[in-house]
Automatic annotation (TrEMBL), chain A:
Family label: Belongs to the ABC transporter superfamily.
Keyword Secreted: no
SMART domains, sorted: AAA (SM00382), NIL (SM00930)
Annotated GO biological process: amino acid transport
UniProt name for this protein: D-methionine transport system ATP-binding protein
Gene Ontology MF terms in the entry: ATP binding; ATP hydrolysis activity
Species of origin: Virgibacillus chiguensis
Superkingdom as given in the UniProt entry: Bacteria
InterPro entries on file: AAA+_ATPase, ABC_transporter-like_ATP-bd, ABC_transporter-like_CS, ACT-like_dom_sf, MetN_ABC, MetN_ABC_transporter-like, NIL_domain, P-loop_NTPase
Pfam family, one: ABC_tran
Gene Ontology CC terms: plasma membrane
SUPFAM superfamilies listed in its UniProt record: ACT-like (SSF55021), P-loop containing nucleoside triphosphate hydrolases (SSF52540)
Annotated ABC transporter domain residues: 40-279
Keywords: Amino-acid transport, ATP-binding, Cell membrane, Membrane, Nucleotide-binding, Translocase, Transport
UniProtKB/TrEMBL annotation, chain B:
Protein name as catalogued: D-methionine transport system permease protein
Domain ABC transmembrane type-1: 12-204
Isomerase as UniProt keyword: no
Transmembrane spans: 12-38, 50-75, 81-104, 145-166, 186-210
Pfam families tied to this protein: BPD_transp_1
SUPFAM superfamilies, alphabetized: MetI-like
Membrane topology (UniProt): Multi-pass membrane protein
Record keyword tRNA-binding present: no
Gene3D superfamilies xref list: MetI-like
Classification via InterPro entries: AA_ABC_Transporter_Permease (IPR051322), MetI-like (IPR000515), MetI-like_sf (IPR035906)
């Protein structure tokens, strides 16, 4: 047992050495050039938790830029470092090295008073809502303004405005325990927005909600983004939440961002295995076991392909054209179609059978139609 | 019965005074110590290892001394504060020293029950440590605090019975001097009955108040 763990430690050290050599040379850019149009910038952020005798690297050299007005999703399994990442934005956590810049300010360089002021520019909602049970919905929403010692009349006006925005104007005098989960999160959102922040942090905001409520809350967040122009950074382990509203996505694995890009890019062509795994969790392109059985007895004159349609090509009657033009039989084994940011995204698993030559011609035809075709083998999914 | 009505009322009054006055003082002492115990611990708002360790040990020491011993041991201090070492006022001083650390622990307990997420939300909205304590922690813990205070008050009623040892008077004193030492069963039963009613009443009041502020 001890020997194995020693081995692992040794391996990690080597790996780290290797990794350090691999660190990209950081281009020297002027501050202005570098963060242009960005609301949140992570610059080589590392977070290490020192424990007794061992330390945990929660974040390792994270670089990330969230543009103004964007909805940026960070996805990862539990323990990937998502919580540390989002908490570095509003200084609930302090990075061990590197810096986080929000709206042009590095919170760690400000005085305590300035930090409190800067935090009013960053709203946050939580998985478990974190509302005060002893206060009414009104007071809960008003809290950030009360803490900022704003005049009563302004507080009242602003709170009522936000309660109307989240659709809870009739619940002002209720207590959180009288509300449903979705309503509690609405209160959380109203509270986070009451100071008119430029940034909203969502910490697994929909993870404690049922699918129906999740959808409604995500739509509300989208509305927040559009109506108030609030930049949103959300962390989640649910790919469906990312698909629903995010523009950009980053995949966090063991404290490192292993993949990032537009939601469309990552969903249609995930580069890493972990990203593919997350994508598969919502795109539902698992090939059922019975079809695998078919694949295993794959014969010379039958081939199985995965065809991915994107955008307009999804609307074209490609397969029927193929079947008419070439002497091949087309058998659809499995299919799904989803929408990503308004663009249809189809995924078909089809079996072609016919003469080798005809199949090749058919494939060539399909390739010319701007769709991705990949042969599916029994041992890969 | 060896006791007349006037003596009985006098004893009840003394018990009420001893419990009431010592409760007020020990509550404030306990509140300050309890809050400090929570916020100075590791990873909390105002982490301070030294203050925490001293408070923690100090409270344990006071809490381990039996009340009857504490009462005698602090006589010089009592004399310094109230000018005498006997009587109702003199009994109140050790009662405060007895209940203060006890209440500190009860308050600590209640505050620790508050969801860590609430503190996080408060920090995220830019609340100062003072605001977090007064506007978030204490209101959220209020219901549980009231139940804790009820326990402490009943503890003080018990302690007041021993106040007879320093001539503090009260119901306990009456029970011992007349009921026990002079074998007056009626006085004994009467005083015990009154104490039972007092304790029941206090507990019901505490439960009622806790329920009212909880609103769940």
């Amino acid at each position: 047992m001890i020997r194995t763990s020693l081995l692992i430690v040794a391996k990690l050290d080597l790996w780290q050495l290797f990794h350090m050599e691999q660190l990209p040379y950081k281009a020297i850019l002027s501050e202005k050039e570098w963060g242009i149009g960005s609301m949140i910038i992570f610059d080589q952020v590392t977070k290490i938790y020192e424990g007794k005798g061992h330390s945990v690297k929660a974040l390792q050299n994270v670089d990330l830029q969230v543009k103004k007005g964007e909805i940026y999703g960070v996805i990862g399994f539990s323990g990937a470092g998502k919580s540390s990442l989002i908490r570095c934005v509003n200084a609930l956590e302090r990075p061990s090295s590197g810096r986080v810049i929000v709206d042009g300010k590095n919170l760690l360089q400000l005085t305590a008073k300035e930090v409190r002021e800067a935090k009013r520019n960053i709203g946050m909602i939580f998985q478990h809502f974190n509302l005060l049970h002893s206060k009414t919905v009104f007071t809960n929403v008003a809290m950030p303004l009360l803490v900022a010692k704003r005049p009563k009349e302004e507080v009242r006006k602003r709170v009522l405005e936000l309660l109307a925005f989240v659709g809870l104007e009739d619940k002002a005098n209720s207590y959180p325990d009288q509300l449903s989960g979705g309503q509690k999160q609405r209160v959380g959102i109203a509270r986070a927005l009451v100071t008119n922040p430029k940034v909203l942090l969502c910490d697994e905001a929909t993870s404690a909600l049922d699918p129906e409520t999740t959808k409604a809350i995500l739509q509300l967040l989208k509305q927040v983004n559009q109506a108030y122009g609030v930049t949103i950074l959300m962390i989640t382990h649910e790919m469906s939440a990312i698909r629903e509203i995010c523009d950009q996505v980053a995949v966090l694995d063991q404290g490192k961002i292993v993949e990032s890009g537009s939601v469309f890019q990552v969903f249609s062509k995930p580069k890493t295995a972990i990203a593919a795994k997350f994508v598969r969790s919502v795109m539902n392109d698992h090939i059922p076991e019975s079809i695998y059985a078919l694949l295993r007895e794959q014969r010379e004159d039958r081939h199985i392909y995965r065809i991915v349609f994107v955008g307009n090509s999804a609307g074209e009657p490609l397969l029927s054209q193929v079947a008419k033009t070439y002497t091949v039989d087309v058998n659809i084994l499995y299919g799904s179609i989803t929408e990503l940011q308004g663009i249809p995204f189809g995924n078909l698993i089809v079996q072609f059978s016919g003469a080798e030559k005809e199949m090749k011609r058919a494939l060539l035809h399909i390739h010319q139609q701007k769709v991705t075709v990949k042969e599916v083998l029994a041992d890969v999914s | 019965m060896l006791v007349n009505q006037e003596q009985l009322l006098q004893a009840i009054w003394e018990t009420v005074v001893m419990v009431g006055v010592s409760l007020i003082f020990s509550f404030f002492i306990g509140l300050v110590l309890g809050v400090l115990l929570v916020v100075t611990r590791k990873g909390h708002l105002l982490e301070n290892q030294i203050i925490f360790t001293i408070l923690n040990a100090g409270i344990n020491i006071f809490r381990s001394i039996p009340f009857i011993i504490l009462m005698v041991a602090v006589i010089p201090f009592t004399r310094l504060i109230v000018g005498t070492s006997i009587g109702t006022a003199a009994a109140i001083v050790p009662m405060i020293l007895f209940a203060g650390p006890y209440i500190a622990r009860l308050i600590e307990n209640s505050l620790l029950e508050v969801d860590q997420g609430v503190i996080e939300a408060a920090q995220a909205m830019g609340a100062t440590p003072w605001q977090i304590m007064t506007r978030f922690l204490l209101p959220e813990a209020l219901s549980s605090l009231l139940l804790g205070i009820t326990i402490a008050t009943i503890g003080l009623v018990g302690a007041s019975a021993m106040a007879g040892a320093v001539g503090g008077g009260g119901l306990g004193d009456l029970a011992i001097t007349y009921g026990y030492q002079r074998f007056d069963t009626v006085v004994m039963l009467l005083t015990v009955g009154i104490l039972i009613i007092m304790v029941q009443g206090l507990q019901s009041l505490g439960n009622y108040l806790a329920r009212r502020v909880r609103r769940r």
